[in-house]
Structure formats: structure tokens, C-alpha cells
């Protein structure tokens, strides 16, 4: 009988293989445009990454008794949105980072204009794929488009990034910090789980509410661990400069709560996230494993 760690390792590897193969197929089929732009898109999407958001999407489909097949394209669109956000976050006008996933950021590897266009193209590609996702009826596709638009736009990720930029050098209270990260990080993680659940035609309101609570709590936990890795991680492992948030005077959980306090809060979030799945059986075990992985990851 496999242990949770073994089970998760196998699942994540299968997920990466499946998602990467589909992303490769979709990016190869885009064609007929600028070769340099398409190279930048491929560089940004296929250059590594943990595929946490697609994995959550596939795991959520399993949790509601649905085959993962219909969740593959929605899962890929989440990764495309995530990749676009990283390209733009790294730009000189934003975080001005030169290293991402252990190699040059897109605007360094290509140029700033190409990076902006690559991000734009990946964003629109995501919605195009979702609009034509096979195996899903029109109402489900529309619900997913609405979900992804809300999570990635000014009510979600983009809004959170704007708050982040406005908060540099300022002192925030914990409620303000959480508001920022519920938008910037948590919204797309929540959408990942909800979109996976929406592939099931018989998902109940109670199931969707429980999965939403799980994902929102997990999104905050993800950010707390990110903040801890910024001060404790190794640049060669985390794939970006260690201490970059501190250098920019960005508000973080450790800066507000202290390192020990941030770790205590991380434990509370993990407990809350797992508790929200109490109404599910073994079909949600991968989601439970994912919660433990998110708070214990080293990169």
C-alpha cells in the first residue's frame, strides 16, 4: 500500500507529464505568427514549474468523482495564466527580477517588449482554449471562463498585484496583507480547485462550498510558505533570488508575525484546509496530500 508521499509523488509526476504534453501540443499548434514571440511563449510555459494549479484542478475533479480527462484543458489554461502572470511580475516596471525557475526571466532571455507580448498572448490563448474545451457543455465552459476571468482580473490576481505594488515600503496589518494575497495568490488557486469540480455535472453546492474553503485557505498557506522561503530558502533551490522581498521592503507574513509566528499561522491554515474536506472520502486524498505538500515545499 502506497504512503501519502509516494501517492502524491506519482500523481504529481503523472500530472506534469500529461499537462506538459498537452501544453506542448497546444503551443506547437499556435503557429503562423512571430517565431520570436512563440519561442518566448514556449520558454515561459515549458521551462519547468511545479504545475501545482493544474494538479489541484485534476485532483478536484477526482474528489467529486469525475474523470480527469475533461479537466486537462482547464488545467492547462490555469498554467497559461500563471505563466503570463510570472512574465509580467518579473518585468522592470513590476518586480524587476532577472531569475525565475533557476534561469533568466523572459524579458532577460528575450527583451522587454517580447516578454509583454508573450504574456498577453498566453492570457488570450488560455481563454480561447477554455471556450473550446472538449467534453464540456457550453454552460460549463461559460462558468469556467467566468471563474478564470474573475480570478485572474482586477477582482483577483491582477488586483492583488496592484495592491502589492502599492504596499511596498508600507506597514500593513495582517488583515490588509491577507486581502492582498487572497487576490494575488489565492484567487487563482481557488479557481484551480473550483474549475476541476465544475467538470462534474452533479457537483453539489455543499461540495463546491467545501472545496472553495479548502482552496482559499490553501492559497493563503501557499503564500505564507513563499514568504518563509524568501528568508530561509536557497536561491539555487527556490529558483529566484533569496531575500528579494526583504530587499524591496515588501510586507510579508514573517515581517508582521515573526518567523515563528508565521510558522504557527501556517500550521493553523493547514489544519483549516484539511478540516474543510471532512465531508469527502478517499476520493479527496490527493487534495489532502497537496495541502501537506504546499506547506512543506522547499521551492
Automatic annotation (TrEMBL):
Required cofactor(s): Mg(2+)
A GO MF label: prenyltransferase activity
InterPro entries in alphabetical order: Isoprenoid_synthase_dom_sf, Polyprenyl_synt, Polyprenyl_synt_CS, Prenyl_diphosphate_synthase
Family matches, as PROSITE patterns: POLYPRENYL_SYNTHASE_1 (PS00723), POLYPRENYL_SYNTHASE_2 (PS00444)
One example of a Gene Ontology biological process annotation: phospholipid biosynthetic process
One CC-aspect GO term: cytoplasm
Pfam (any one): polyprenyl_synt
Keywords attached to this entry: Isoprene biosynthesis, Magnesium, Metal-binding, Transferase
Family named by the database record: Belongs to the FPP/GGPP synthase family.
Protein name stated in the entry: Geranyl transferase
Organism of origin: Marinobacter orientalis
Amino acid at each position: 500500500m502506497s504512503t501519502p508521499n509516494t501517492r502524491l509523488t506519482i500523481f504529481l509526476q503523472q500530472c506534469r507529464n500529461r499537462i506538459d504534453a498537452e501544453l506542448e501540443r497546444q503551443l506547437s499548434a499556435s503557429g503562423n505568427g512571430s517565431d520570436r514571440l512563440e519561442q518566448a511563449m514556449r520558454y515561459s510555459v515549458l521551462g519547468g514549474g511545479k504545475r501545482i494549479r493544474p494538479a489541484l484542478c485534476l485532483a478536484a475533479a477526482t474528489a467529486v468523482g469525475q474523470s480527469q480527462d475533461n479537466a486537462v484543458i482547464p488545467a492547462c489554461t490555469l498554467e497559461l495564466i500563471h505563466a503570463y502572470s510570472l512574465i509580467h511580475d518579473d518585468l522592470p516596471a513590476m518586480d524587476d527580477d532577472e531569475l525565475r525557475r533557476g534561469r533568466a526571466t523572459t524579458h532577460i532571455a528575450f527583451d522587454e517588449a517580447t516578454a509583454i507580448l508573450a504574456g498577453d498572448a498566453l492570457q488570450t490563448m488560455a481563454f480561447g482554449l477554455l471556450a473550446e474545451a472538449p467534453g464540456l457543455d457550453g454552460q460549463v465552459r461559460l462558468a469556467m471562463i467566468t471563474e478564470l476571468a474573475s480570478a485572474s482580473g482586477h477582482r483577483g490576481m491582477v488586483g492583488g498585484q496592484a495592491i502589492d505594488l502599492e504596499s511596498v515600503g508600507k506597514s500593513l496589518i495582517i488583515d490588509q496583507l491577507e486581502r492582498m494575497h487572497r487576490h494575488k495568490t489565492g484567487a487563482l488557486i481557488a479557481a484551480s480547485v473550483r474549475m476541476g469540480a465544475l467538470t462534474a455535472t452533479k457537483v453539489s453546492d455543499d461540495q463546491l462550498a467545501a472545496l472553495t474553503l479548502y482552496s482559499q485557505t490553501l492559497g493563503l498557506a501557499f503564500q505564507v510558505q513563499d514568504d518563509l522561503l524568501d528568508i530561509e530558502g536557497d536561491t539555487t533551490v527556490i529558483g529566484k533570488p533569496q531575500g528579494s522581498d526583504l530587499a524591496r521592503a515588501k510586507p510579508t507574513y514573517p515581517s508582521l508575525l515573526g518567523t515563528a509566528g508565521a510558522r504557527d499561522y501556517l500550521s493553523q491554515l493547514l489544519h483549516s484546509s484539511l478540516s474543510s474536506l471532512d465531508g469527502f472520502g478517499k476520493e479527496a486524498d490527493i487534495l489532502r496530500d497537496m495541502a501537506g505538500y504546499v506547506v512543506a515545499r522547499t521551492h
